[in-house]
Every structure is written in structure tokens, then in C-alpha cells.
Amino acid sequence: MGEPLLVLVVIALGTYAMRAAFLVTARARPPAALARMLPNVGPAVLAAITLPALLAPRGHITPTDTVPALVAAAVAALVWRRTRSLPLALFAGLGLSLLARAVLP
Amino acid sequence: MSTPVDRAPAAHLHRGARDTVAVIVAYVPFGLTVGAAMANSGVSPLVAWASSPLLFGGAGQLISVQLLGAGAGSAVTVLAALVVNARFLLYSAALAPHVADWPRRARWLGAHLLADPVYALAAARFSDPAAAGRPRDRMAYYAGAGVTLWCAWMLLTGLGMLLAGVLPAGFRLELAAPLTFLLLLLPMLRGRAALVAAAAGGLAAAAAAGLPLGLNVLVGAAVGVAAGTLAGGRHG
After folding, report:
1. Which of chain B's residues have a Cβ under 8 Å away from the Cβ of A42?
2. pLDDT by residue (tens digit) across B148-168?
3. Are B194 and A43 in contact (CB under 8 A)?
4. Could you tell me which of A49, A50, A100, A48 has the C-alpha nearest to residue A71?
5. pLDDT in tens, B123-145
6. Which of A43, A86, A94 sits opposite B201 (nearest CB)?
7. Are A43 and B198 in contact (CB < 8 Å)?
8. Whole-angstrom Cα distance, residue A21 to residue B123?
């Protein structure tokens, strides 16, 4: 029990250091070049997490995995645009993907 | 009745908590899945669950606990988890201009709460001058979002561990996480630079999907930020 917990504590310290690094040294006006880049971090990182996972939900691009995932994503995005409700959009997408998986061979 | 000025931070706190409840509902499948995976990892349950308060981030917790359960070396496990969590360094940089006028202690405390949804909610709100408010309002919103999600994450992952043996074998929710992240991404897609950043980042990460340790996310982040900045500089 001791060693796994120690490893987790080390990871936690490293993770905290990365989270804190810029927050605690923040300046109200970062250099102009940096200020133009920073707003793009969120869209870039979240898309970089999302798109590969949608294209290959279980690690490989296959019609039976990829098609339901992309349809579910499209439906979720559509419901979100209409309702601005995150849970509603998520469960519409999830429900559709389960349905598609049941229908597809 | 207090004046609107006095009420403002409390209203922002509530707003942060309320916005987060929607994320938490969406996070139920993801949190349960992370908990169940940790329960099945072979690491003792309490130690595995301790990753929730310690790391507060599903992807990093999954990779650390699963590597520990598989008997991987300590150095490999630490390295893999820190690479997966390196995106927090980017979030920290991106959020920094919005917290520069907070007291230092609030920034030290807030750092631990900087999970993906907290960053996404705060960034979307703080970048809108009409909604952001004064420093205290922003602190209140951030605290409302962060503390609410932190508490819910402890419960959800714990529940997932307890239910690990009960969930049906066909209970496959691998789409819950990417769909939730998609829904955190959509409110950020305001303007051409953000759209270009997301498209380039997503495609680059997909093209680099073969890299180990989730390094493709960092590749996507770099390409996306560069492309978005170029697009914004030319047209924004």
C-alpha cells in the first residue's frame, strides 16, 4: 500500500506545480504575442482530447465504432445549439449512440 | 436586504455552482466509469480512490492507477501521468491574465481546482467582459464551480468503485467523456481564431493518435494554438 500511495503523492505534487505555475506568477498584462495565443489554448486542447476519442472510441477507427460516435457528436452539438443544455445534449448523444450500436451489425 | 454590491460575489458563487451542476450531470457516466476502472485495477481501493482528492482529474487518475495496478515502475507511472496532466500547465497560462488581480493565497488555493470543466467554464465566462465582473466576483464564480465539482468528483468516483461489480458487463460508456468535452468546447468556439484552433488541434491530435502516453493531445494543443493565433492575427 505504501509505495503506490507515494507514487500518487509525487504525481499530485507535479500536477499541482503545473496547475499553479502561471496562476501564482500571473501578470495582468502578458506580453502581446502571448496574449494573442492564450485564448486559443482551450479550443485547441479540448478539441485535441475530443476528436481522436470520437474517431476511435476504442482505439481504432472502425465503421461500427466511428459512425455512431460521430452521429452522437452531431446530435449532441445540435441539441446544445437548440437548448444550451449540457445534460440534455449529452444524454441525447449517448442515447443515440446506444441505439445506433444496437441497430448496426 | 443587502445592496447589489454586497450581493454580487454571492450571486457569482451561486452561478458558478449552478453552471457546474450541469457539468456534473454530464460527468456521471464518466465519473462512474473512472471509479469502476480504478476498482478493477488491482490497486487497493482506498489508495486508488485517494487519487481523486490528490489529482482531481479523471484521465491522469486512470493512467496512474492502471499503471500502478499493472505493476509498472514508479518512474514510468509518474512520467506518464505528468504527460497526461501537462495540459494543466496550458490551462494555468491561459487563465493567468484573468486571476492576476486575485490575492496570492486565492491563486495558490485555486490552482488545485483547475480541472478541465472548471477551466472551460471559467475561461468562457471571464473572457466575456460583461459577465466576468470584479476580481471578487471572478473568485466567487471560480470557487463555486471548483468546489462543487471537487465534492461531486469525490462522490462519483467513490460510487463508481462501489458499483464496479454491479454495473452490467455491457455497460460501455466510452463516449461519455468525449461528448462531455465536446460540450465544454462548443461554448468556446466564438470567432474565427477559436474555430481554427479547434479544427487544427483536433485534426493534428487525431493524426498523431499513435503516439504513446497521450502525447498526441500535446501535439494537437501546439498545432491548434499556433494555427488559431495565425488566423486571429490576420483577421482579428
Report:
1. 91, 94, 119-120, 123-124, 185, 188, 194
2. 999 999 999 999 999 987 866
3. yes
4. A100
5. 989 988 888 889 999 999 999 99
6. A43
7. yes
8. 17
Whether residue A54 contacts residue A70, with contact meaning beta carbons closer than 8 Å, is answered with: yes
**Alpha-carbon distance A105 to B204, whole Å?**
31
pLDDT digits (tens, 9 = 90+) for B80-123: 999 999 999 999 999 999 999 999 999 999 999 999 999 999 99
A27–B100 CB contact, under 8 Å = yes
Q: Cα separations (Å) of B81 from B61, B97, B99, B163?
A: 8, 27, 26, 25
Q: How far is it, in rounded angstroms, from Cα A45 to Cα A62?
A: 24
Contacts of B37 in chain A (CB under 8 A): none
One-letter amino acid identity for B124?
A
Return the closest-CA partner of residue B192 out of B127, B129, B236, B126: B236
* B50: chain A residues, CB-CB within 8 Å: 5, 8
Residues belonging to chain B: 236
Instruction: Give per-residue pLDDT as tens, B169-192.
Output: 555 567 888 898 999 999 899 899
Instruction: Tell me the residues of chain A between 43 and 62 that have a Cβ less than 8 Å away from chain B.
Output: 43-58
Q: Does A104 touch chain B if contact means CB atoms closer than 8 Å?
A: no
Cβ contact, residue pair A76, B111, below 8 Å: no
Record: contact B177-A56, CB cut-off 8 A: no
CA-CA distance, B188 to B196, in Å (whole number)? 12
Query: CB–CB of B122/B92 below 8 Å?
Result: no
**Listed residue (B24, B6, B64) closest to B183, CA to CA:** B24
How close A105 gets to chain B, by Cα (Å)?
16
Cα of A91 to nearest chain B Cα, Å:
8
Q: Could you tell me the three cell numbers for B107?
A: 491563486
Give me the interface pTM, i.e. the ipTM.
Answer: 0.90
Residue A56, amino acid? A
